[in-house]
Specification:
The protein is mainly α. The chain has eleven helices and no strands.
């Protein structure tokens, strides 16, 4: 009787196990990348409502403690109204103070700027630069001639940008509108959204939502504290060094510090240019030295103390997030990137390390008589 012929090996048996594993991960990562790309494209098309929602969440996270505090003594609707009026008064007061300061120092700043440019021109003409005398003043005159010659183009560009201003106003109004309802009845809105989910998934979404909101609110309040501290330190240093426009530069530092890692150095670089034109190169170098000092204080003291309990991502991840957000969506992406990554990582960590969700409670038996208690 002839021996049975050996069966040919199946096709997948000839593929090394490592290659099969790599192929399995590859198509999953490819699918994940395509999904992420499509999500980014859709969010880019819906930029106005997405930015408005993000702004509403920021306002809610900042004003929520004040609203909860006032709601103990008055109706919650009135507490929301009082909190909004207080916040608007503070913002308008700061803007008015900045405008008044700039208007009051403008004429004196022009004279100091003219003298500072002359001193800078004289300094650059000597050793070790040996720049041709009059280079700085010539550049200033050429800049003025360029602006005067292209005034019509600049005006038309500004007029064409009016539609962008309308979009910004609409986004701000929509964000304020949504934040009113988030502050007044956000818990009820979240409870309604949970009830629309299957019963088995509600506990998972509840944990994810709770951790995500705690991380987002902690990051928002923490970054405001860090930005305020940076602004106060910069304002004190600029006042000591005698740099003009201290208050506007301080506000600029506060706004720029909302973008981690890169915002504060950019604001201080602008302040150093003002110091260079008015106070000279020595003061400008001292202002540039503030970039290192503020960076050390922010990285080794403020962030671990203020943000360490809410944001648990590595500084390398922060840098990559800011860079990626800036590439995808400019300044807005750089602002949004870190809180989005922080919330995503917090939710993933909670669902991974928080244990299995609690099983849903069994519904009461229908038609079974209850035992009467004696």
């Amino acid at each position: 009787m002839p021996a049975p012929r050996p069966r040919p090996a199946p096709p997948h048996a000839t593929v090394p196990p490592g290659l099969r594993t790599a192929a399995a991960y590859t198509w999953r990562l490819l699918l994940f990348g395509i999904t992420g790309y499509l999500v980014v494209q859709v969010l880019g098309e819906l930029q106005l409502p997405v930015v408005a929602l993000f702004l509403a969440l920021v306002i809610t996270s900042v004003l929520r403690p004040l609203v909860d505090l006032l709601a103990r003594r008055m109706p919650r609707a009135l507490a929301v109204l009082v909190s909004f009026l207080t916040a608007i008064a503070v913002v308008l007061g700061v803007l008015t103070l900045v405008g008044t300061t700039v208007a009051g120092e403008w004429s004196r700043l022009g004279e100091e700027l003219h003298g500072g440019l002359a001193r800078l021109d004289h300094s650059l003409s000597g050793a070790p630069f040996h720049v041709r005398p009059g280079t700085v003043t010539d550049f200033r005159s050429k800049l003025g001639e360029f602006l005067s010659e292209h005034r019509s183009t600049l005006i038309s560009t500004a007029i064409s940008s009016a539609g962008r201003v309308v979009e910004l106003v609409t986004t701000a109004a929509l964000g304020l509108f949504c934040s009113v309802f988030f502050l007044h009845s956000g818990d009820r809105m979240w409870g309604w959204a949970e009830r629309q989910l299957p019963a088995g998934a509600r506990s998972v979404w509840s944990r994810a939502g709770r951790v995500g909101w705690q991380t987002f609110a902690g990051y928002t309040r923490g970054v405001l504290i860090v930005a305020s501290t940076n602004a106060v330190l910069v304002g004190i240093a600029l006042s000591v060094l005698g740099v003009p426009l201290v208050l506007p530069l301080t506000v600029l530092e506060f706004v720029a510090a909302l973008v981690p890692l890169i915002g504060s150095p950019i604001a201080l670089a602008i302040a150093s240019l003002v110091a260079l034109a008015v106070r000279g190169p020595v003061v400008a170098l001292l202002v540039l030295g503030l970039i290192v000092v503020i960076g050390q204080i922010e990285g080794h003291l403020l962030h671990p103390l203020v943000l360490g309990w809410s944001v648990r991502i590595h500084p390398v991840a922060v840098a990559l997030s800011v860079t990626g957000g800036a590439v995808l969506a400019g300044v807005l992406g750089a602002v949004v990137a870190v809180p989005v990554v922080s919330v995503a990582w917090a939710v993933i960590s909670e669902l991974r390390d928080g244990g299995p969700p609690a099983p849903p409670r069994a519904p009461p038996a229908v038609g079974r008589p209850r035992r009467r208690q004696r």
